[in-house]
Write a structure and sequence with these properties.
Blueprint lengths: L4 H12 L11 E8 L3 H21 L14 H6 L9 H11 L9 H5 L12 E9 L2 E7 L9 H9 L2 E10 L1 H8 L4
Length: about 190
């Protein structure tokens, strides 16, 4: 799926402010996350790199040169490097847990950022929302255009390194499930 400027702008808006129920696609994909700490702090950390990537998707040419990293949080740069000793504990723990997944390698900052290139077809998701569903439980909702299998290694990487103990999914969900969750209903 290509991400054009309009879709990146909409993602940024949804990242900053919960979308309306009426705008939901017919199917969403959801990741169930167990956090290593406070879910609100986790979501704040999760949104920072995603926002930086989306903003770069709107402003950069994505040539062969390195992309600017000044909008990324230091912890994400540290954990996505060769030597990640400077990364905080939550990020190192997430990196270790991500590394234990079968077939999951660690991401480098530039490789991760290039997933936000508008003409890159490997990012098979668009940010929809994130919700707190328990003391250490979060759900990440994305639009995968109804696909149950899609490129999401980049999303798993940021989810783990933001401080996840576990990331389960994706699974397809009706938007009514998300709507009930944001309304506080089971």
């Amino acid at each position: 799926m290509l991400h054009d400027a309009d879709s990146l702008i909409l993602e940024l808006q949804r990242l900053r402010e919960r979308p309306s129920v009426g705008d939901a696609p017919p199917v969403l994909s959801v990741f169930d996350v167990t956090t290593a700490g406070d879910p609100a702090s986790y979501l704040e950390r999760l949104r920072e790199p995603v926002e930086a990537g989306l903003r770069l998707g709107l402003t950069e040419e994505f040539c062969d040169d390195d992309l600017p990293t000044d909008e990324l949080p230091d912890w994400f740069i540290d954990v996505s490097g060769d030597r990640f000793e400077g990364a905080p504990d939550f990020a190192q723990l997430g990196r270790e847990r991500h590394s234990k997944l079968r077939g999951s390698g660690n991401w480098r900052v530039q490789g991760w950022l290039f997933r936000f290139a508008p003409d890159d077809e490997t990012r098979g998701w668009a940010w929809w929302d994130a919700t707190v569903v328990g003391k250490s439980k979060v759900r990440i909702w994305v639009d995968s255009w109804g696909e149950s299998f899609f490129g999401c290694g980049d999303l798993r990487w940021v989810a783990f390194t933001a401080g996840a103990r576990d990331v389960d999914g994706p699974r397809l969900a009706r938007p009514e499930e998300w709507a009930a969750e944001i309304a506080g209903r089971p």
